[in-house]
Amino acid sequence: MGLKTLLLVPLLTVLEGGLADGHHPGRSMPGSPYNISQDDSGLQQVVLDAAYRYNNQSNDAFLFRASAIHRAQRQIVKGVRYIVDFDISRTVCRKRDNSNLSNCDFQPVGRLHQTFQCHIELWTIPWLNETVTQVFLCKP
Ligand SMILES: *[C@@H]1O[C@H](CO)[C@@H](O)[C@H](O)[C@H]1NC(C)=O
Ligand SMILES: *[C@@H]1O[C@H](CO)[C@@H](O)[C@H](O)[C@H]1NC(C)=O
Ligand SMILES: *[C@@H]1O[C@H](CO)[C@@H](O)[C@H](O)[C@H]1NC(C)=O
Ligand SMILES: *[C@@H]1O[C@H](CO)[C@@H](O)[C@H](O)[C@H]1NC(C)=O
């Protein structure tokens, strides 16, 4: 993988959703973020959904999935906010094969081996059944 390839990888920025009442989390958030376990089921879902979204938006022939979680935090603020730093790596599964992502092995070290660092901030409001992705960025 040369530098050229790396530069061609899209920087993903996703901002979607939005609350009908126009509230946004500001600096005056009541609860502070606290670390949560990597095994947390809510966290696992956030990371899996992020991988699906990454794959949907990338031009890569292969699927990527999370390979490491470096920071996992939750914040209680009018719902639940997740702040996660994780790595996403290329798997051996081709997109066109519609594989179950959870079962895809990572590429072995070599030409196709590649990892990006992602940061996501996601806010869920369970009683409104709403999820707002505030930040989602992946970079080499
Ligand atoms: C994938 O992206 C397309 C357009 O880019 C969008 O219409 C579609 O809903 C997305 N699918 C998922 C599962 O996010
Ligand atoms: C929270 O996790 C981060 C990253 O793993 C770590 O650097 C930090 O020390 C942890 N903070 C607490 C209070 O445990
Ligand atoms: C994918 O595989 C995992 C683990 O084997 C399983 O828990 C999950 O239900 C599967 N998902 C789909 C959509 O088949
Ligand atoms: C929340 O959304 C999910 C998925 O869109 C849907 O299956 C579920 O019925 C909804 N629940 C409520 C309470 O609206």
Automatic annotation (TrEMBL):
Residues 1-20 form the signal peptide. GO terms for cellular component: endoplasmic reticulum; extracellular space; Golgi apparatus; late endosome; lysosome. Keywords: Disulfide bond, Signal. Residues 28-139 form the Cystatin domain. The keyword Transcription regulation does not apply. GO terms for molecular function: cysteine-type endopeptidase inhibitor activity. SUPFAM superfamilies: Cystatin/monellin (SSF54403). InterPro entries: Cystatin-F (IPR042886), Cystatin_dom (IPR000010), Cystatin_sf (IPR046350). This is Cystatin domain-containing protein. The lineage of its organism: Eukaryota, Metazoa, Chordata, Craniata, Vertebrata.
